[in-house]
Amino acid sequence: MSSLRFVFLFLLISLSASAQKDYKLWLQYNAVKNTALPAEYKNNLKGIVVLGNSETIKIAEKELQKGFQDMLDISPEIKSDLKGENNLIIGSKSALNSEIKNELKSDFDKINEEGFIIKSISLKSKKQIIITGKNDVAVLYGVFNFLRILQTNKSTQNLNIADSPKTNIRILNHWDNLDRTVERGYAGFSLWNWQKLPDFIDQRYIDYARANASIGINGTVLTNVNANALILTPQYLEKVEALANVFRLYGIKVYLTARFSAPIEIGKLKTADPKDVEVIKWWKNKAAEIYKRIPDFGGFLVKANSEGQPGPQNYGRDHVDGANMLADAVAPFGGVIMWRAFVYSEHDANDRAKQAYAEFQPYDGKFKENVIVQVKNGAIDFQPREPFHPLFGAMPKTPLMMEFQITQEYLGFSTHLVFLPKLFQEVLESDTYQKGKGSTVAKVIDGTLYPNKLTGIAGVANIGNDLNWTGHPFAQANWYGFGRLAWNPYLDSETIADEWLRCTFSNDDNFIQPVKNIMIESREAVVNYMTPLGLHHIMDTGHHYGPGPWVSNLSRPEWNPTYYHKADKNGIGFDRSKTGTNATAQYAPEVEKLFDNLETCPEKDLLWFHHVSWDYKLKNGETLWNGMALKYQEGVNQVEAMQNVWKKAEKYIDNERFHEVEMLLEIQYKEAKWWCDACLLYFQQFSGKELPAGVEKPTQTLDYFKSLKFPFAPGNG
Ligand code: GCW
């Protein structure tokens, strides 16, 4: 072989090897080598005893084999009986013998249907490790958790874990269209290849299910909430069934979005009125048809009477009528309706932030028991920072599920490194005070505050068919972190970052510590360079790419950034206090008081709740104008600091991912500077003040920034 050809071949092989690393997500199963642990692990894992033979148990067995092979270079013998010691036993409760069941009696009492036990036990004086749960999927969760112990280089001595998910529905919402475009998707096209389904099962479907199972996600809504009724036709249901057949083995239920006008569009009815008998019958039949194909179908997610989507109000009915009609259709089969509370009207000029609460809160207690209302984390729309949505805690008789956005519509697409679990945690920890101090959003969501049977967390997926799934290698951490928080909404985001880095890159502390710091700081950085001090919704129109605080010409007032920042000669910010729209009154009295009073309102939310003069003194003594300018600059500086830290990561990880992140950080830096310059130049027109010392001069004029157009920016539905 000529040396040139050899070099070329070598390049190809090494390229594909690192591309695979990107693809493998947090399931890298890197060789364990940097501690004394390999010996301990190998000692503890002489054989694998597999009890049960379902497809799911086989998947669990294969996963263990793969993990042991890749991480420890061992292939323990697979057995079906309990001979010898130092075995790893896997199997669900019903497959265990009475001796083991007795041994684990109190452990089984501690877990729910989906929970697992990982425990070092002694049977007939022989040491064993057991992974079990009440069903096979729970065992699979346990297996992934056990493998994570090895991945993160923790000891396997004296294991004693009993862990259960705190929410029932842990679900991804894909805003995927049938033509494979993804609304607000920045990682390529949709994974679902409808054209080739049902006969062609892409390996990606399996890998997707495996990745989700590894973090406990148990549901997926395949289609966009801006729905197309065609998905409910037999032609498409056959394809959905094929996906459900793959996902089921990994404990993942399939859900679809229901377009409210489907009875007209595909059912040839004249109306979609939820009180019309023909319409009611049509949905009942449709549900029966779906459940015949997919007996464990999860149910429907519905966006109704929101942003142009049809709904019950088209017929003079309300959200309760619509949701309950669909709930009746799926109830006989155990299905659930997730009804979205993301509503705002163009006819209400007062305050968009108040509308979902105003409309939904009075419906408390009126929904059927298989309806769960899905509420976005904040009252506007997935901004870099929003105070928690006032509906949380305010509907004691209605199950509410959280809707987070994993895809970074307003946080730099898949170009910016932003670790979202930090944002998620901030929301989950927020105290609603609805039942006194300690009534956190997490407690509303997991059913501790009000005992609701249904609980859940949804995340708008950031997944597409890009080689690395999520566009940015670090956006994988947001998928991972979402899953971990859906399982346990009380987890600390720092713990999640630590786990993810170890599983994805390396266990070397010299790598972990600084890079974890980048992740933890990244959320505050994006707030600083986009929307500091409570600013919100000042992005450009339609695609939402880049700054557009000057936009004021859109047909609906509440689509204009000027509606939100209200900058004028006197100051800036949206007065939602008593002197303004009184949106603060939608919170419990303690929270209302906190936000309402300029003195006590957290500065991070200042301009969300108050219109403040440019000379207002911030807590650090700076005027608002200077403080705001310095915050913008701080955001830019933070990205620069992230770049410097990342440079030092080169020697710890593979070239490909290192360079990808390096290039992306460079773009992030440029875009942070763009946000900073454009916003400060624009707001300066109102403040009439100089930029304070420490803030770099803008690189372009305001007119230049205003002239930028991006007709093909991705994700624009
Ligand atoms: O944030 C807005 C998005 C829309 C989205 C809508 C929603 C799916 O810009 O693209 O539509 O929210 O959540 O329904």
UniProtKB/TrEMBL annotation:
Domain Alpha glucuronidase N-terminal: 25-146
Record InterPro entries: A-glucoronidase_C_sf, GH, Glyco_hydro_67_aGlcAse, Glyco_hydro_67_aGlcAse_N, Glyco_hydro_67_C, Glyco_hydro_67_cat, Hex-like_dom2
Entry annotated with the keyword Repeat: no
Catalysed reaction equations from the record: Hydrolysis of (1->2)-alpha-D-(4-O-methyl)glucuronosyl links in the main chain of hardwood xylans
Keywords, in A-Z order: Carbohydrate metabolism, Glycosidase, Hydrolase, Polysaccharide degradation, Signal, Xylan degradation
EC assignment: 3.2.1.131
Subunit structure, interactors included: Homodimer.
Protein name per the record: Xylan alpha-1,2-glucuronidase
Naturally occurring in which organism (per UniProt): Flavobacterium endoglycinae
